[in-house]
């Protein structure tokens, strides 16, 4: 009886997007969803994606047949190289199993489902998420019945990393817990560990036999350098961890609606690694088949054309620098404007944080005031998508923040 179905709350982020669209104020500012915008607040189709698209459409052999269950092989192998580095020991030793997924969300889901079925290190098997994290992480793991806890991550005092809290929490977690980790450009805080801190995190994860689950949705957005943004994952792989990776192409290719992504399971080096890889791949294929049968082709084909062509790849890197560079510029301008106005508080975190988001430190009350008084839309936790700021609205936004903070 459907009468028993309770009303669910609207998704906060997509609800925010809808509220922004309904707002008719000409000065409205959208700092909600993490999607890149150009200096005129318009979606940006990457020039390299336009080129790949044209190439694809002019291909006389193009058809609409099913992809294999694991997806487009040229795409998944290029995705391995992108995330792990071309000379990764795991690739050389054939320890990587990769399946194309419905973007990052699909990859997190496939990984969570696989772990729910096959990863049972202890009776309390729990997944740990950074506090805060991308809210969808909780929903996805909840759907597959894996209990959840959080580890401290963001320090309200410094607006930076609560490193001690993070480490202590890893140390006190039951052995064999699943640790979900943002590989770079942490969402929502824009705060990443340093390389020294990553090393310590890896050390504790090893000592406690935890299972690292990386989510990488912003490679190329944090520093503008793909290798640098992949550093943490590559370090863990070099250290011989068994781990998995959910990889999204939504942001770094601007392929949001095309749902291009990849899931990778890396087996640790051992004498029977090949047998493990074969068994893991066979189970992942069954899970994928039962859920989506086979992944959608279009976005993966676009990314694959770019990833497998040296010239287009270089052009993509330049496009990434255009996006990350504009965001870095907006961070500088916003911070300068708030400091010039003497807006109460400190604002160095705006330029210290990296990637698509800044965790402003604004309270929920201030966020709601900004929406009501100034038609500025951001999530209630005070996160802003930096890409929503541009040379035309940054002054307006800084003034609105100043007003809200002083109110
Ligand atoms: C975001 O956090 O804004 C993005 O990752 C979009 C999403 O799917 O939540």
Automatic annotation (TrEMBL):
It is an enzyme of class 2 (transferase). This is Aspartate aminotransferase. Homodimer. Residues 27-400 form the Aminotransferase class I/classII large domain. One of its GO terms (biological process) is aspartate biosynthetic process. NCBIfam families: PRK09257.1. GO terms for cellular component: cytosol. In eukaryotes there are cytoplasmic, mitochondrial and chloroplastic isozymes. It comes from the Eukaryota. It catalyses: L-aspartate + 2-oxoglutarate = oxaloacetate + L-glutamate. Coiled coil: none annotated. Pfam families: Aminotran_1_2. One of its GO terms (molecular function) is L-aspartate:2-oxoglutarate aminotransferase activity. InterPro entries: Aminotransferase_I/II_large, Asp_trans, NHTrfase_class1_PyrdxlP-BS, PyrdxlP-dep_Trfase, PyrdxlP-dep_Trfase_major, PyrdxlP-dep_Trfase_small. Belongs to the class-I pyridoxal-phosphate-dependent aminotransferase family. Its EC number is 2.6.1.1. Keywords: Aminotransferase, Pyridoxal phosphate, Transferase. The keyword Methyltransferase does not apply. Its cofactor is pyridoxal 5'-phosphate.
């Amino acid at each position: 009886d459907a009468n028993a179905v309770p009303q669910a709350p609207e998704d906060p982020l997509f609800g925010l997007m809808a509220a922004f669209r309904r707002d008719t104020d000409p000065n409205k500012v959208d700092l909600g969803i993490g999607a890149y915008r150009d200096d005129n607040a318009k979606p940006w189709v990457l020039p390299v994606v336009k080129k790949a698209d044209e190439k694809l459409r002019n291909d006389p052999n193009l058809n609409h047949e099913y992809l294999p269950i694991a997806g487009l092989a040229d795409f998944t192998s290029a995705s391995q190289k992108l995330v792990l580095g071309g000379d990764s020991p795991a690739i050389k030793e054939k320890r990587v199993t990769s399946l194309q997924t419905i973007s990052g969300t699909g990859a997190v889901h496939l990984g969570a489902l696989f772990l729910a079925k096959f990863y049972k290190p202890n009776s309390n098997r729990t997944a740990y998420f950074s506090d805060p994290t991308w809210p969808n992480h909780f929903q996805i793991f909840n759907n597959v019945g894996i209990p959840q806890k959080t580890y401290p991550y963001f320090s309200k005092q410094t607006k930076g990393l609560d490193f001690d809290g993070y480490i202590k929490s890893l140390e006190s977690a039951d052995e064999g817990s699943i640790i979900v980790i943002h590989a770079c450009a942490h969402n929502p805080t824009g705060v990443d560990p340093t390389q020294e801190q990553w090393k310590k995190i890896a050390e504790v994860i090893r000592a406690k036999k935890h299972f690292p689950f990386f989510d990488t949705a912003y490679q190329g957005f944090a520093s503008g350098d793909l290798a640098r943004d992949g550093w943490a994952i590559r370090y863990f792989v070099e250290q011989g961890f068994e781990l998995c990776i959910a990889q999204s192409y939504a942001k770094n290719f601007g392929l949001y609606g095309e749902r291009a992504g990849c899931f990778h399971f890396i087996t640790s080096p051992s004498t029977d690694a090949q047998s493990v890889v074969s068994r893991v791949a066979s189970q992942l294929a069954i899970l994928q088949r039962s859920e989506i049968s086979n992944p959608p082709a279009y976005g993966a084909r676009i990314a694959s054309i770019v990833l497998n062509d040296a010239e287009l790849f270089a052009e993509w890197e330049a496009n990434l620098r255009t996006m990350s560079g504009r965001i870095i510029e907006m961070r500088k301008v916003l911070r300068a404007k708030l400091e010039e106005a003497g807006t109460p508080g400190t604002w160095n975190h705006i330029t210290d944080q990296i990637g698509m988001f800044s965790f402003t430190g604004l309270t929920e009350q201030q966020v709601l005031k900004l929406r009501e008084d100034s038609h500025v839309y951001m999530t209630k936790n005070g996160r802003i998508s930096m890409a929503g700021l541009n040379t035309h609205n940054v002054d307006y936004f800084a003034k609105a923040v100043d007003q809200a903070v002083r109110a």
